[in-house]
Amino acid sequence: MGMANGRSRLLVSCGEASGDHLAAAFVQRLRQRDAELEVAGCGGEALLRAGGELFLHRERIGFVGWSAPARHLWRLWRDLQAFLKRAEAWRPDSVLLVDSPGWNRRVLKWSQAQGLPVHWIAPPQAWAWKKRSLAYLNGVSVQPLFAFEVPYLQAFGAQVEWRGFPRTPAQPTRHDGTLALLPGTREVLWKRNLPLFASVARQRGGPAAVAVSGRPSSALVQACQMQGLTWEDAAPLMERASACLAVPGTGCLEAVRHGIPTVAAARPGNLDLFLATCLLDPGSKVLPNRILGRNVVEERYGQEASMPTVVAALERALVRRDEFAAIAEELETRLGPPTLL
Which of 18, 227, 264, 269 is the most exposed place for a label (fewest CB within 10 A)? Predict the structure, then answer.
């Protein structure tokens, strides 16, 4: 593998909105060192803005759970083969993987066969599984987002370096009474959770808005309108919300970082719920709880995620507003320095 026209080539692979932003930030920092770096791969609008070329859009592989990918298995396999074929013709010098373990495990295998150095940001969540081997991470350079992940990854032989959680400083909220709703960025997530979140908002009364990063899809806008909801950019909404209802993920983490009383809830499909019970670690699924080592965010899943139980959980969270402000300060310390490189 040589350089094209004397320039280094980096192949990027990410399948989620958060991963797209992480990859773009990483690329921008790399280009401060090497302005001639060429970047291409699987990503989204953030990677495009960072000067990357898309071989495949991240939305093609942005599934969650087990049942959704299974329904698209043949199409995903064809997309993977086409992506790797184009990558091989492009002749990268190194590979950057970001999250998306189901997809990126295959890209890792291809990269190793090509003899390419690989760096994986937000590698598979070894802590989330009961008894799952991640032996394929042996010797791989990985950069987890959270310190508590380090021993889990080291147990599988990964070369781990934790450099802190990449973030901008969280601003204190103004608490104007708005309920921030974070039903998930992927369509399969918000389709399942938006009706519940909307019913909770109606029951509580007062203003509510769906938090989105960037421009929402037309399907999400239409779904919000049908539920009588508005949408807002996530960053300013987090600076004024009084409470938050979120699916587990980085959105829930951001809400707690802002000191917002938060409840996590989700309604996965019956098959995904059954498989989660069988395969996932029985501990908390919420990042703030895992990072702090105790349950600070109340969680409701499946049948437990009904409108009355979630409304009651939100009322309990609001009583703890001062506690959430202290939790936010503790969380910032645990997240380490706000850097990526």
Answer: 269
